[in-house]
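Aim 2 progress update. The chain analyzed this quarter is reproduced below.
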Amino acid sequence: MQFLENIRLAFTSILANKMRALLTMLGIIIGISSVITITTIGSSIQKTLTNTFNSMGSMNYFEVYSQIDFSNYEEDDDSQIYTYRDEDMISRQMLDELVQTYPDYFSLSLSENYGSSGMRNWKDQSMSVTISGVLNFDNLGDIKFISGRAIHYQDNLNLKQTIAVSDLFVSQYFAPDVNPIGQTVTLELEATGQTEDFIIVGVFELPAAYLNYAYKPGMKEIEKVTPVYVPLDTMMHLLHQENSYRYWVDIYYNINYDIDMQEQVLRDFFTEQYQQAEKPYMTVEIVNMQSQLGMINAVVNVITIAISVIAAISLIVGGVGVMNIMLVSITERTKEIGIRKALGAQNSYIRMQFVVEAILICLIGGIIGILIGIMNGMLIGYIAKTVVTNMYPSYASLFSITVQPSIPAIIISVMFSIITGVFFGYYPANKAAKMNPIDALRYD
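Predicted structure tokens:
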């Protein structure tokens, strides 16, 4: 009951001096709102980056680059003028052996662009497509199939002339109400000029990010060049490519196993492959995309915390303001304190009364600051989204701007407000508690 009475007295005192209380809270409001605004921006940047990367497809892969390891050269080798050849790079044979050796750890989702092909649709209109060869559709971005199936590894193994087309291709190429599954389309291979027939096995939906990025507003549907996918090995066979070499490749790992362990297995595998090929001067660099995102988030965290600490300095100024006003309030209420002590109020009751009042002032200021900080973060997010949409429309769909207030920062801000009230309110409260009741009653 004593605590509730102190809260009632604190509210009475604050309401009796509304403007002074508001000005007292101002330092707390500015400090807390600044911290919440900064932490909201920081957490929103992290969430936006995560959502943007996730919208591009799975992130559980290593980027593997072939490199020359000059440290493995003999002294008489002229390493400075050496230029590595195709056969020094990562070969398809290596990748197939990797998957066969470690099927539980790694998978591939290779793709290769094979140029474009002109076509004539059912109205005899001219249209174009871009041809990509794929090993399989696993982890190949945010692609969803509307009907049929994707290109599988089995299509590659059997050199099938199958094709997956987009919903846009279907509306461009076929008459309405025609079921595209099982239909044959003829592509002209840009590299050789020869034509080949492919059977449609699946129709996928073009992602919104691709539609917004690839096509200008107002472009006619027939003018839009749409991608189609065929088996990679089939294309290599048709083009008489015995092997393919890559400077870099994405290798997907199994998230159910330790990532560092899989990275070391991958490094050891390629080291052994190059040693067997008598190319000890070749090595690989492995980049973990999840680690890269983690590093970016870590940098954002450090910057956010550093700026938040600077902004939090204003809380000290606000706390000094609270102490100052509490001292003034105690001076104005000296007779009230004297009467309460004369009636038997203990020092601890007087002390608690003014500590509670200081805490309440800081807490109300902190809550107002939190609300203002969240609104500032939302406003900045809205402005950022508007700027990207209007100034960079082709990239707008690639950024999933998300405003996310930092819950830990809000909780810490509330606790900090209470601590500020206790710390800066205790001295004035203790001074009031130690007053001599006789001197207090004689104060004018």
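The chain has a mean pLDDT of 78. The longest helix spans residues 347-391. These observations will guide the mutagenesis experiments scheduled for the next reporting period.
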